[in-house]
Amino acid sequence: MNNTALKIQVEKIKVSKIDQVDFDNLSFGSVFSDHMLVCDYKNGSWEAPKIVPYQPISLDPSAKIFHYGQSIFEGMKAYKDENDEIFLFRPLDNCRRLNISAKRMAMPELPEEFFMEGLTALLELDKDWIPRNAGSSLYIRPFMFASGTGFHASPANQYKFIIATAPSGSYFAGKVKVLIEEKYSRSANGGVGYAKAGGNYAGQFYPTQLAVEKGYNQVIWTDDNTHENIEEAGAMNIFVRIGDTLITGPTSDRILDGITRKSILEIAKDEGIATEVRKITVSELVEAAKKGTLKEMFGAGTAAVVSPIATFGYRDTDYDLPELENSYASRLKKRITDIQYNRAEDPFGWRFKV
Amino acid sequence: MNNTALKIQVEKIKVSKIDQVDFDNLSFGSVFSDHMLVCDYKNGSWEAPKIVPYQPISLDPSAKIFHYGQSIFEGMKAYKDENDEIFLFRPLDNCRRLNISAKRMAMPELPEEFFMEGLTALLELDKDWIPRNAGSSLYIRPFMFASGTGFHASPANQYKFIIATAPSGSYFAGKVKVLIEEKYSRSANGGVGYAKAGGNYAGQFYPTQLAVEKGYNQVIWTDDNTHENIEEAGAMNIFVRIGDTLITGPTSDRILDGITRKSILEIAKDEGIATEVRKITVSELVEAAKKGTLKEMFGAGTAAVVSPIATFGYRDTDYDLPELENSYASRLKKRITDIQYNRAEDPFGWRFKV
Ligand SMILES: Cc1ncc(COP(=O)(O)O)c(C=O)c1O
Ligand SMILES: Cc1ncc(COP(=O)(O)O)c(C=O)c1O
Predict the structure, then answer these.
(1) Which of UniProt's keywords are assigned here (chains A, B) (predicted)?
(2) pTM recorded for the entire structure
C-alpha cells in the first residue's frame, strides 16, 4: 500500500531511542517505538492523522476517559521475514472490529483508510523497531478514547485515536494453568463483552488476581447466568480437543470475535481436522478429562498466539492435560505463524504486505 | 474537621477564574473550580495529597487508563446554607464506596483521611465556588485511574486520585421519560455493576442514545438474564409507589448501592411511609399502571436528587404516571434537601459541616 491517498504529516523524533533497546530480551509491551500516529475527532469529524514522536498526552481532568470509560483498543502484530519485508495479519479485520467496538461504546467510527494508511506509514517509519528474533514481533496498539470534557454522564464530543507500537517477546512464559470461574463474570447478555472496551479488562483483574494467588495464570470465564458454559480467557478465545474433534464456543454478545480464533478454525478445516463451533459445558469438560478423552485445551489470540493449557482447575480439583507429541496446538501454531512471518504459502489471503 | 493531621501542600492559582462564571445559569459539571486535589500512588503506597490549580494531566500513551479501563469515581455535592456555612452529605459513605470500587477493579484503596482531609481542605480553599442559588450546589468529583504504563493486560503499578469540583445546576431539565430496556444490559451477575467504574457508564451510552432517539431521556435497566426485574437507571436508583407503598429493588452485585437510595428509605420510614425492598418486576409495574395503582416512579441519586418520572415506556407502549398533589417524591425531596442545605433538623446525623 504505497500510493497513499491521505496526506499524513510526519514530525520525526530528533534522536532515536532504538539503541537503548535489548532486542534479545524483550518483555511484552513495555518498550515503545519512536513514533506514534495521532488522530483527533472534533466538531463531528476526524482530522487528518499525524505521526509524531511517542510522547505524553495532555488531558483535562474532566476528560470523559477518566470518568465514563469510553475507551476501546485493538491488538495486532507486525512480522518481519528473512528479507526484512514487513507483514500484517488480516489488518482490516482489526479496523472493522475497532469500529464495531466504537459503535457499542457510542464513539465515532474511524474511516478505514485513516487506520490502514496511518498504520502502514507508521510502520514504514519505525520499521527498524520490528524485531527479527524468532517469537518476537512488533506489537501494535491502536486505541481510541474520549478526550471531550464534562462531568455529565453522556458521550464525549471529542476523541483521540492513537496507534503506538512496542517490540515484544512472548506473552506467557512457561506452562499455562487456568481456573474455571464460577463466581465472577466478564460480561452480560446484552452487554459490551463483544467490544474490545477497556472496562472489560479492568473487571477481570481482581478475579484473575484471586486465581493467581491460588497458583493459576488465567481465569476461564463462564456465562454469568449458569456458569456452565466455557466462554473465553483474559485475552484469548478457548479451544478444546475432545477425542479428535477441535471445539470452540460460538461468538455472542458476551465474547470477543477473535481473529486468531476464526483463523484457527479455517486452518484446522484446511488441515482436515474435525471442528465444531458449539457450546462447551464445564461438566462435559470435566467428564472428558476424567475419561481421558480431553486431549488438549489452548487459548488463541494475537498476543498469546496459540497457548497450550497444561492444567485446568475446577472446584478445588486440578485436571492435567496430557503432553502430546503432535498436538493440534503445535500444528496450528506452526501453520498460523508460518503464514504471519511469510515462511509458507498463504492460501487464505490473510497476509498483508506493508 | 479543622485539626488536619495531614500536611497538605497547597499551590494556589495566580488569578482566580471565578469572575468568568455565571452562577445564575449553571449547567451540570461543565465549569471547574480553581483548584484540584491530586494524590499519586507509586511503589506500593499513596504519596501525600497536594492541592494545585486545576490543570491538564499528562500521561504516557501506554498508561493503563487508556487501555484497560481501571477507573473509578464518586459523585458528591457541597451545599451552602444561608450563613455561608458549608455542608457535605454522608461523605464517608462515598469514601468507603470508592474503596469498594477500587477493590473490585484491582486498584489500591485510599486512606480515609486522605479523602476526608483532602476534600475539606479543597472546599475551604474554593468555598467561593459553592453556589448559593436554590437548586445549585458544588458538584464534587473524586476519581481514581491507572497511570502506570504498559500494554500487558494486568493491573497498573501507578495510580492517580484526584478531586475536582464544578459549580452545577440541576441534572435533568423538565419531565423525565424512561424506557424499560429489554435487549441491552448494564451489568452481569458476578460483574462490576456495584462498582462506580467508568466502563459501566460507557456501556450505557449507546442503548441510551437509542432510547433518546425514541423520545425518552433515560433507560431503566433490567437484569441481563430475564429482563423481568427493574434494576436502576443511568445514574439513579429507582423507586416505585404502588398504592401507598414505596418499593425499591434490593442492591446486588449488579446495582450501585446508592447513598440517596438508602437515605430515602430511612426518611420514608421516618415519615411513616410503608416501604419494601424487594424485586420489582416489569409485569407488576405494567399491571399496576393499567389498574391505576401505580402512583409514582422516581429516580434517586446525588446528581439527580429525586427525579420524578412522568412516563415509562415498555414494548412500544407508554404509560403515563398521574400528577399528584402531595407526592412522596416531593415530600422526600424536600426532606433530603432540607437536611443537605441545613434548612432542617438532621435526626440521622448525615450532615457533615466542613
Ligand atoms: C477478550 C479477548 N478475547 C479474545 C481475544 C483474541 O482476539 P484476537 O485473536 O483477535 O487477538 C482477545 C485479544 O485480542 C481478547 O481481548
Ligand atoms: C449507576 C448509579 N446508580 C445509582 C446512583 C445513585 O447513587 P448516589 O445516591 O450515591 O449518588 C448513581 C450515582 O451516583 C449511579 O451512578
Answers:
(1) Aminotransferase, Transferase
(2) 0.97
